[in-house]
Amino acid sequence: MSGRQVEVLVRCTDLADLDVFTKTDPMCVLFVKQFGQWKEFGRTEAIRQTLNPNFTESFLLEYDPYIQQPLLFAVYDIDSR
Predict the structure, then answer these.
(1) How many whole angstroms separate alpha carbon 28 and alpha carbon 77?
(2) From the first residue on, what is the mean pLDDT of each consecutive set of 10 residues in the chain (81 residues)?
(3) What does the entry list under GO cellular component (predicted)?
């Protein structure tokens, strides 16, 4: 059986507020594990001034139910780098 595409949408609630005077500006980065190493797969847009982002950009992944496919989602505050 061949793999299928799945769309992964991301949203977060109650993120830590890392900014002193404003709210966090989050962005989500998806990493996939390939040959024992994490590789960046894609990024969402950054959303300004929110602790509860509902990202509109999604990730399209090939999915095979017979293969383990580790994913790592990391959320960054874009203006704290």
Answers:
(1) 9
(2) 85 88 92 96 96 97 92 89 48
(3) plasma membrane
